[in-house]
Amino acid sequence: MAAIYSGIHLKLKGSRTPWEDKLKLARFAWISHQCFLPNKEQVLLDWVSHSLIGCYNKKLELSQGVLAELWAYLDDILHSKKLQNLTKERKTISLRFAVAQVINEQILESVSPDAPVKLSTLLSCCQGILSSSMLSVIYTTKNELMVDLLNKLSLLACSELKSQVAVLRPQLFEVLLLTFDHYMLVQRQQTNPNRIFRQVTAQLFQPCLLLRHLLTTRAWAAEDNSTVRHHLSREIRNKIDVLLHSGIFLTDHFSSYKAELLPAKEATGVKRGPVPKALLTPVCVILTKLSDTEFYDPSLHFAVKANSLPLLYKISLDSYCKSGANQLVGFYMFSRFVTCLGLSKEKDSVEIFSKSDWSLALLALENLLISTLSSDIYNVAVDRLQDGEAQFHFYRDVAQLLLNHPQQSIPAWYRCLKGLISLSHLIIEPDLDKLVSSAWVDADCKDARVQKAQDSLLSTLLQTYTKLRQLPSLFQELLSVICKPAADELRQPVLSAGLLRKLCECLLELPPNQVLEICNMIIEKCQSCLIPDVDGKDNIALKLLSLSVLLHSVMFNMKSLDNTTPVPIVHRSHRLMGGMLDDILKPLLLLLLKGHSLEAFWLRKVCEASLLFCYTWVEINTIFQIHCSKYVSPVGPMEEWDCRILFPGMGLEDCCRITNITSMCSSMSQLLLELLSLQKMKKIIFQTDLSKDANIEASLRKAASYIVQSGRGSLCQPSSELWNRQISRVDDSTYPVAHWFLVTTNLGVMMPFLSEEDLSYIADLVMSTVLLQDVSIGLDDQETCLSVSTISRHLLNSVLLPEMPTMHSAFIQCLLKRFIRFLCTCEEGVTSKVLQYLENDAMWIGDQKKDCMSEAICKTEEASPSWKIMETAAQEILTSAKVCSQMTISGSQFESLMDLLKVMGALKPDGMTPADQSRCFLLLLFIATNLKPSFDSEAVKTIEQLNETYLLLSSLQSGRNFGSVLKILHASDILEAVMASLFSLSSKGLSSSIENPAWLHFLQTLQNFLKGLMQVIIERKISTRLNLEKFTSFLLKCDVSKEMKSGQPLETWSPGSGQLLVTALTTLCQVIISCLAQYKKNKQMVETLTHLLEEVAIILGPVLQSYMKSKYCSRLGPSFFVNSVTVLLEAELTRRSHRTTEGDDAPKEPLRYAALYKYFNQQLMKELSSSERPLDFLMSALCFMKVFCSSAVKTRDRGLDEIIISIVLSLRKLLSAPWVSANDICSLETYLKNLIAELTASCTTEQFYIIMKLIAEGLEVTNIWKGNHRDVLSAVTLIRVLVSCSLQGDCEKAFWYTAPQMITALVFLIKEASKELALTSLLTVPALETLTVLLQQGEGILGNPHHVTLTFSALLSVPLDHMPIEDYYSVFHATHEVLFSVIQCHPKVMLKAAPSFLNCFYRLVVCIMHQGRQKGDGEKGSIAEFDVILKCAQLVQRMYTHIASKTEEFTVFSSFIVAHYVNELQKVTLHPEVKKHLTEGIYQILDLCIEQDIKFLNSSLQMGVKEVFKELYNNYTHYHKSQRQGEEKYTA
């Protein structure tokens, strides 16, 4: 056969063989083992390479089809397994350099649809070459080819990214990333930095910047490949950044940059000349390339430049200006880049900037300024003393440029100004008036992003001038700008919500004199510039209003006077208030009395300003009087409590006229009048005795009614407008919100003086608005913006509403009316007597006035008529429930009902009166028993409504006045009515949704309701026996019980009714069991309850047996049935135990349903680990198994050994199941502990040995080698649970006898699991936790120290690096806990094992120092990650403290502990928060050091470390030691 194929080589080279045959032979030769050629693979690779090169060199003429086949053949070779095997075997195989040249030449041409070779084929070939270490040398050894390939691929990627229509090729970006990787390797091997610079700037600089810009700004579409979008684009951008850093800003180039950038006098020290090939003008080269209009499209050129300059500047700073070095070089680089942007006074290019260019330029400038700030380029003192203020003058030029060409609609414009202020306020100060005008007063910011940027700028401005104590000068400029002639009349408010909060902070930091100076300036401006000329001038009136808002904001947010305020400040405040009264209030109020037309715009604004000035003066004057006894009001004490309080200094007649005039002006004026009226009420209440004068109380009632009724007309219409709580933003649309906010927040003041009509109006308004839907509110506005519905919800959910009984009761009456109105419309022709009884409010209100509705009075024989009516209504509800006469509601009505139920759910039962609570309970009981949706197909809706109703009924049971309900309804009647109505609903279609999770949730809610009501019966001793007997009788005689006992076919049952019956019986059993424990001394009660329990168990057992055999219970999954069987078993055990106490022969009698329990237990153990189960099912199953084990012991079951073994095996399988997570195990641990405790408490020594043997099988290391990791986890968990149980007698001795072997096994497991990082959270951490528990419980028991010291070798193997943050904390915490257990519980071991202990602890210290170091922007993690690091630092601090407390063991090692700490501290710069915790810990160790230790450290530490120690010791002496000595001085 070999002879047949020996001529292939000649045929491939022969000219007579057709190319199609050559290709077939070549393919056959590559894959065939029967073709023998010397060095066959190299021969075939050379042939295809020669053919391709010859074709493109015009030496061979090939058809397009043959050419495409040749490329495909080369591609197949490059990606073949045969070539990969040759590479692994290290056989030499090579490719010609000309192939790389051909690929580079053809890449861009292959994009054309007419190209003979597809781009995908070329890219695949390129990828194959670069992926092979042998073949990639054709690029890596010839740098020009690599650079050319990278250039071509970058241009190709740019062309694809420019087109938003074309779908991106992932293959192109994968090859591009691979090429970047190879180029970076080649670049690092080059020794000529100038050559690298020229190559990068000549061929790669422009394509890479364009590519980076397009990747960053691309509007990614849904059809774009996710790998390209999320991974490849990010990696390529990172590679470009590295390429620019290593290619353009090398350390060797710094002298060239310095020589070019610095002026001649600054660069005298730069060596020029001896190196002939030095770079002359690198910055000029970079900027020339960026400004090349031929390479970049005109539409992209400026955008690429603007995006690239900040990146280049940041890279240059990282290379040359770290830690504040070479500041001047960094500055001149900044100035050249800013000039390149066109932002220079020397050019007029800014005049022709378009809006988009302005936005790009300002964003670039912002990023440049951010980099300048972060690198500390600008030092004011150095710039002034050494550089002739070169930086300052340039920054001034930039600031002037920005202010001369304001761009108020671009957020970056504000951020640039903020950056300049952050550099130095002196840069902006000469143009402060321009800044205040263009960026504050005259800026029209409606866009949210612009508003946020403006607030940030102005907040920085306020904060800066506050720190400089020059805020009055800033306000001087602000007032000048406000008062100058404006271009238009309508101005934006001076203070936004965010700016007002910042002003409040700043005013609290200022000294009082400066705040008063600001107030005086505002008053002076009003008096001198505005008030004399306001008559008839709209713009002056607007300015006056602005200043009134400003003065109001300042005075309401400054510090109040008090008795500690210096007298000069009090006198100055007195003069300020007097000047405000004489110079502003009186002139403005007199102006209002001149009789001008109220339709005039200027007069409405003057009214608003006058009232705001009045309100500010009255409020501040009152506060000063209350808090400062030295302050004397300018108007003296008030003798009459009329409207003169509102307008100080005016006569009674004038005050009345002013009130009439201002009330008709505007919504803002109306709100201010309400605020003044409220202030009047507060002054009267504070300064008078209401009981002495009836006229005063009448005045208060009138004022309260005025405040409430003023906004009645505006609140009649529903509104969704938002108000930001600023008084300047009150207009016709926001007035309802502001008025409602005023009313609700001051209800506590007005409540005693409101009439029934006012209370009813407020309650009705809350009810009407609380269900309104809010408009969408942004995240930034959620805390500040309000709507009417939001305010109502806040009031409803507040803790203050129940503290206002009349208001609370009024709202409940309103809610009940709404319910009754709704129920009356549910079904035509239905008029319920219940609703008629509950609707009659006149009688309720009358009784409330007489205070007849307390629970004490309703106990008397002569109850009020209202209670008699309520009893009648209760009986009607019971009657309708028993006859099952149900009203129906439609789908739309259902949503309304659910909304009303949610409103009732917000009420607090403890705040209700007995009558209110009774009416609410009756209404909800009526809804629960008489209402159902009319759409049978939507039974889930019925379940939702029932669930919500019974939740509310359960909530009302917890109210302190619930006893009043039980005076009109017997508890057993309520229980019977509830169950009767539910049985009826279930038979009418409710059972169709029992598979829905909502049904099981409802059953739990129902169970809570029934249990709660029965508990109330027991706790209040309300005919306990009678009620329980009656309810038990009802359940045993109901139709559902009869059907189940009749033996009817299972298919005829209503599954829902059966589950409801099981729920009721189970709950009744639980309550009787708890009641037996409470009444165990009452023999008659115990006898009755035991009999009841037996009757219930007799029916519950068959029901459960039958139900589990039905088609509705094919699986035991739901915890519902498990809980029911558990309760049945507990009931039988309880009945047996009480018979035992009576001395009967009952203990010999077996359990009635023993077979059921045994079968159920077997089924549970099968299902525990068969497949994934819900967590609640597992918990219920473990509870049943505990009770079942207890029953086996009590009944002396002969198969107890088998039960114990089967349970332990089931637990092993459960914990080793792959679907059981670590969180699940944590949740199940309590239930496991209870079950194991029950097993061990009742077992013999032999049985305990069996348990131990079954558990210990999983601790063998071979399980890890075999991959049985879950078996190991199961054993480790069971050991931890077992050791947590309180073992007694022989079991305890047996366990601790084997404990050393368990510790040894755990140590080996930890060492083995630590070899694989993936097993950290699965095995290492649980094993460490188990080891911790063993050490803690073994205190005083583990006698051999060796068994304890074994743990140290395990801790040294635990990995602490390169893991997710969640695993990091769990490992760190587990390691710390093991160490803590050793030091706390085994002190004798520490006498000899302290060095080993410290070695383990040192690993934690080193690890937290590495994780807690200060990180750059690229390394910073999330806030959650930093919180974890802080927790770990606290653990280290805690361990230092414990070590310091063990002076006997560690005094000798204290100096070494400190030496280790400072050695590690010298290597890193810690985050301040982390350093704080570690420092506090090491101070405790320094407390152990004596003088000789300090001398030893000073003499033995190395130089750099010694400086760190000296700083640490000085801080210790200054802060910690002195404080400790001070405490010791006063310690006995």
What structural keywords apply?
two-stranded parallel sheet, 1532 residues, mainly alpha, 71 helices
Strand content: under 5%
Largest β-sheet summary: 2 strands, parallel
Determine the number of helices (DSSP H or I, runs of at least 4 residues).
71
Strand order of the largest sheet: 1-2
Distance between the termini: 106 Å
Q: Structural class from helices and strands?
A: mainly alpha
How helix-rich are the residues, as a percent range? over 70%
| Radius of gyration based on Cα positions | 43 Å
- Chain-averaged pLDDT: 83
Question: Rough shape?
Answer: globular
Uncertain spans: 270-276, 842-846, 849-862, 1143-1147, 1525-1532
Q: How many DSSP E strands?
A: 2
What does this structure look like?
The chain is mainly α. Helices cover 70% and strands 0% of the residues. It has 71 helices and 2 strands. α22 (432-441) packs across α24 (471-483). The longest helix has 27 residues, at 601-627. It is globular. The model is unreliable at 270-276, 842-846, 849-862, 1143-1147 and 1525-1532 (pLDDT under 50).
